[in-house]
Amino acid sequence: MPALCRDCCRPFKSGDDCPRCGSARVIAHPELFDLTIAHMDCDAFYASVEKRDNPALADRPLIVGHAGGRGVVTTACYIARKYGPRSAMPMYKALELCPDAVVVPPDMTKYKAVSQAIRALLVQATPLVEPLSLDEAYLDLSPEHRLSDRPAAVLLARLARAIERQVGITISVGLSYNKFLAKMASDRNKPRGFSVIGRAEAVGQLAGLPVAAIWGVGAATAARMEAAGITTISQLQKMAEADLVARFGKFGRHLFLMARGEDNRPIIPDRPAKSVSNETTFRHDMHRPADLLAALLPLAEKVAARLGKAGLAGHTVVLKMKASDFRVLTRNHRLSEPTRRADIIMRTAQSLLEREADGRAFRLIGVGVADLCSGDNADPPDLFGP
Ligand code: TTP
Ligand code: MG
């Protein structure tokens, strides 16, 4: 079975311990390398940040919130949660349940900075990052969007590892084929979790859940559905779409699709255009380096023109190619200075291309510029140039 080591982040076959590093932190799933929609959520976010900054708290039950009469818990660390404290609980009650807890007031400025540091890592994997709050985001890691041709699962394991090492807190991730199921998966084995919901198992797993597990079904809607005798997703799975629409209007169609694990909401990044790119599909597959290079030139010029028009420049040049077997490959290079110049984009793409044009046939080629910024500081004059 396809498997992945969550410590050394290498893929391998079968689900035992990692053959390379011996780690037992292995995720194995038949669809592991076919799924591309992910959701990440930080573990006990505020508390994890406070523990990172004060190692003396590491093994203590920690509650973040304002102490005193009317304070509430924003979050409790996983040690404190064993005794019952939860987000939104009145502080006095949380401290009744866990009298040994250390209480720290929230520091939003710090959490925002941590959130940005995490985001900076996420966008190295894909420009399609949709944040939901400070501590969670969806990622579209499909081949046409991700900035590396490694499988989504590998990128996700690397991100979790990078966030632990560079930011100093743990996250849990979910990998599936749509937003609804990716989010459901990320919540499954917190903290430091990695779980997968594949196409083959989704409908069966959903069947066992209450309707409230469906995205968009809050307490009020669940109560309304219960009044109509519908409590489980398996009941919804047996109902005809027309019946659900008759009972719940447009929302009925949503219920019909979600119950079957179908959710086609796109992942929408909160920041506009993270990259500017252009690509072309050949009429006949091409394999000669010279032909591939010739196809790149007008694309690089178009990208530069679009950057110029928008007053933008980019730090990273991305080369994308689709092989004749439809496998998509992307290569990128981060420049020392952002650029908006066609010749620099072209030269960089060319050196990326030279490593790939080894006689294989390609059906598509594209070039883009990512890590966009204002064009004002792009392409500083070369002191030693002509
Ligand atoms: P969550 O992701 O819901 O919770 P969490 O990260 O603390 O714990 P986990 O995901 O491991 O279950 O929320 C993220 C942060 O948002 C949380 O650390 C504190 C804040 N928050 C509140 O201030 N009030 C709340 O009621 C909730 C739920 C969260
Ligand atoms: Mg969280």
From TrEMBL:
Binding sites annotated in the UniProt record for Mg(2+): D41, D135
A GO molecular function held by the record: magnesium ion binding
Cofactor: Mg(2+)
BP terms from Gene Ontology: DNA repair; DNA-templated DNA replication; error-prone translesion synthesis; SOS response
Major localization class: cytoplasm
Ranges of residues in domain UmuC: 37-218
Function statement: Poorly processive, error-prone DNA polymerase involved in untargeted mutagenesis. Copies undamaged DNA at stalled replication forks, which arise in vivo from mismatched or misaligned primer ends. These misaligned primers can be extended by PolIV. Exhibits no 3'-5' exonuclease (proofreading) activity. May be involved in translesional synthesis, in conjunction with the beta clamp from PolIII.
Name this protein carries in UniProt: DNA polymerase IV
